[in-house]
Amino acid sequence: MRILFVNNDGAGFADYVTITEGTTVEQFFTIKMEGREPSDYLIRVNRQPVPKDYCLQEGDRVTITPTKIEGAACRLGQQTA
Amino acid sequence: MKNRNNSQKNQRPMLRFSPTAWAKLLFCRDMTETEVGGFGITQADDLLFVTDFALVKQKVTAVSVSFDDESVADFFEDQVAAGRRPEQFARIWLHTHPGNSPEPSMTDKATFTRVFGKCDWSVMCIVAQDGSSFARLRFNVGPGGETKIPVCLDYSCEFDAANFELWKQQYIANVAREEIFRPIDTKEKPVLVRQLSDDIFGEQIPAVSQQFASEDLLSQIDRMEPFERDIFMEELAIRSDFWDEESEVFYG
Known about the structure:
The structure holds two protein chains of two kinds.
Chain A: E1 2-7, E2 13-18, H1 25-32, E3 41-45, E4 48-49, E5 61-66, E6 70-72
Parallel strand pairs in A: 1-5
Antiparallel strand pairs in A: 1-2, 3-4, 3-5
Chain B: H1 6-9, E1 15-17, H2 19-29, E2 37-43, E3 46-55, E4 58-60, E5 64-67, H3 69-81, H4 86-89, E6 92-97, H5 106-116, E7 121-128, E8 133-139, E9 145-148, E10 151-153, H6 164-174, E11 175-177, H7 217-223, H8 226-238, H9 240-246
């Protein structure tokens, strides 16, 4: 079955992928995001957070997006190089 | 339409802004005295030419900006639905510094590495209050590396007119000022910002985020995390309205 997968790592990806029936979102993450920590990402299916044992369904939209994007101004005297 | 010649294409990389995108970035920067951030939108065949500055929901202070994770995910979905690829909307991280230094802070650099470090390429661009800018291009293909690149406006393409009213609406809809400092007569308890169920897969966000709200100023400062204390002290130094109200000197 096919699902839409959106992810920014590597070359970036926003297209349909084929997965086997019964694949959970945890298994999918492990396959597609090898070596990455789930805690570094917001993982949603059809715009909703899901449990890790959620079985992906035909036509699902899976997004794996970065979290904690934050910036701060330099403090006086702070090293920036 | 583009009007670039071959010699321009062969020049070293530089981050270019359409006049409209640059104007929008400066407009948002000047809306308040806080930071503001977003993503640069580019065309598919010109990935270092920013044609729009896209905001996501964010909390800002005079010294920090923090994107809302769910809004970032919504942004990704909306951009894909609009037919763009991630490299067109998620590789150029833009934010402002209220002061006159566009140099990245330790937090900026840590975010750039943690969030964008696994992309094939990415750009961190910072624009300061005085118009000075900083941009760093990182690439992870081949041997990898990073380099500081120039920032410029490109007038060689057609560009849209400014739309201050629309930009203002977008700013108001997305940017929320978060007060680090509040007057000491505030009785509020620490705010529960967000709590996620343990069974949700993915990001684990600390359940409780404390904001300063107590009569006991020094003990509150003592209990802050070092990062919180740094931000608080920066805010304290910048907030001249506070000093005017109190007419006192704080000895740290």
